[in-house]
């Protein structure tokens, strides 16, 4: 009887175990080899066993392709984790067509060590030359069955657990198990989502406020009858406003606007995986996004109560402007759901003076200005939603569009590029505001300016960048600095210079705008009028681990893939011991987010 050589199979599984172990150590700081062997490895080993059993005489080619696919998955997760501080899910396969906007960052995110994930491809090549036609073993069936049994146990156990944060869940239960659990939970969401409801009064009490009817708010109707312009600025963070570098203001035009604005300087981003498109969703519905899934990718097409629809009842015509393809982030689905009457994308906005992946912001604002005369004749009042694109990662600007004379230490750095791109966009906003004044529209308008999400985050922000940021800010760059966006309300003769430091989130923008315009509403939103309420509770489910919250006195970062949970004082960002108030806020945040999912589920598949 011919002796069967087990060595090639042992080496194939050993190579996979080494790769899986490296992945766990890199992504999760894994310290237990037994956790790898019993939780993470069996799922991958089972898939490998299936490949070996099915491949027959083409075994080596199949194994090589399988290991290459696993390497690509691990490599992609590594880069994604560095940029977004969370692991991707199978949902993110839907985003592959959106990669054009971040493709330029891949080189910046990767390092040579990452390519060790592909080293086994070379080893397998030599193994195949050494054992060209290994005999298929009946023992492989036993391996597959054993791995399948272990997988079944770990998956069934994982399905019994709640997914509060995907990264933490994957750390505890395995990456592939986390994907199965997400698929399962998504298929059963309808049953869970309908059970959580809050009245407006209960929602405000949860945030620490006494409920007041909208019509009784002091700010109600302050801007009644005015046109509305919302300018959503790509990657604009709060820390750049009213700041200078070598005597040069980073945002001189926004700074000038502050003298006649109500400025909320303590407002946090709440976007999910859809980033900019999620910000559009939040601002125009007052609802949370989905988190790990771009909200626009999951919309069923059902019309949502929105800012455009609420304003239409008052005689407003609405238009949205974004200088990119309308299919980007499924905006061709999102915009009809939000009820815009006019949609302008790269098909309409001239593709001239291109920067990054679209026309420069000056082209965008010029186009908006060109549409105003027709719209003012067509509609009683207008609502324009303007989404800028130029200040986008990696923030590299042509020399002719650089307004700052950067110190030598900032040249070529990520923070230096960021400041240049923000300075450019600020200049275009200033020109557009002047255009409104020249057309005598400014005094008849309510203008809202906000950032959509952070730009300075993830591993693209190097140690050198952190050092420069600390010098620029006068303190260490914190999570609060990273996630705080500016929010200005301005317009002719509306506000005197006012800075309000009360806590807010992007979900608060729509209810605040409606109150200022004197429009009551009878549909639920997660936010509230920032001019009225002093207390708040803001949830985040992306960039921060799920279960994290920002409360008027506290900032809580839930446990994630690598780090334990931590509680900060919101004002100083100094660490605090978890107290009874924090435990209550954690529970209240879960209630809040469950209700958010209940409201969102109506509009998703």
From TrEMBL:
Pfam families assigned to the protein according to its UniProt record, in alphabetical order: Sulfatase (PF00884)
Binding residues annotated for Mn(2+), in chain numbering: 234, 276, 452-453
Active site residues according to the UniProt entry: 276
Family matches, as CDD domains: LTA_synthase
Localization: Cell membrane
Transmembrane segments: 32-55, 62-83, 103-127, 139-159
Pathway listed: Cell wall biogenesis; lipoteichoic acid biosynthesis
Organism name: Planococcus halocryophilus
Keywords of the record: Cell membrane, Manganese, Membrane, Metal-binding, Transmembrane, Transmembrane helix
Segments forming domain Sulfatase N-terminal: 227-519
Gene Ontology, cellular component aspect: plasma membrane
Classification via SUPFAM superfamilies: Alkaline phosphatase-like
GO molecular function: metal ion binding
UniProt-listed Gene3D superfamilies: 3.30.1120.170, Alkaline Phosphatase, subunit A (3.40.720.10)
Main location: membrane
Residues at which substrate binds: 392
Similarity comment: family membership: Belongs to the LTA synthase family.
Protein name: Sulfatase
Topology of the protein relative to the lipid bilayer: Multi-pass membrane protein
